[in-house]
Write a structure and sequence with these properties.
0% strand; binds heme C; mainly alpha; Cytochrome Bc1 Complex, Chain D, domain 2
């Protein structure tokens, strides 16, 4: 993709990511990431694999054979959260990606 992800203080990104994960104003339909993914819920077995990997939703709806973690955040923004993707270079995308990486490592 050749884009430059937002670079910032890792602790700050992690805290912001956790906050955004619970933020219903990110979606157009009143959902937050946590609505579906609270306490590690809602992921399929692929979430345990190192990125990039194949995810059924990304393949079936967007035709993507393989996704990086930031792309998976965008897939859930567009599909279940029914809104626009975050700007690729945004602090918000970097924060959610950092937080999701932490969640994945904790499983
Ligand atoms: C309406 C429910 C719903 C919401 C809201 C939602 N997701 Fe998901 N998410 C899913 C489902 C369903 C899957 C499993 C998709 C699959 O494996 O095909 C998934 C899978 C994932 C995965 C793991 C994919 C993998 O590697 O297997 C990540 C990471 C993820 N979501 C992040 C997010 C983030 C970040 C948000 C908020 C921006 C979010 N999701 C909001 C339903 C949701």
């Amino acid at each position: 993709m050749g884009y430059q992800p937002y670079q910032g203080d890792p602790d700050e990104l992690m805290a912001l990511g956790k906050k955004l994960f619970n933020d219903t104003s990110l979606s157009s339909n009143g959902l937050a990431c946590a609505t579906c993914h609270n306490d590690g819920a809602g992921y399929k077995a692929t979430f345990a694999e190192a990125y990039p990997h194949s995810v059924a939703m990304a393949r079936e709806i967007f035709g993507l054979d393989s996704v990086h973690l930031d792309e998976m955040v965008q897939v859930c923004m567009v599909q279940p959260m029914a809104t626009d993707p975050l700007a690729w270079s945004s602090k918000e995308l970097a924060a959610l990606t950092a937080y999701m990486g932490e969640v994945q490592r904790g499983r």
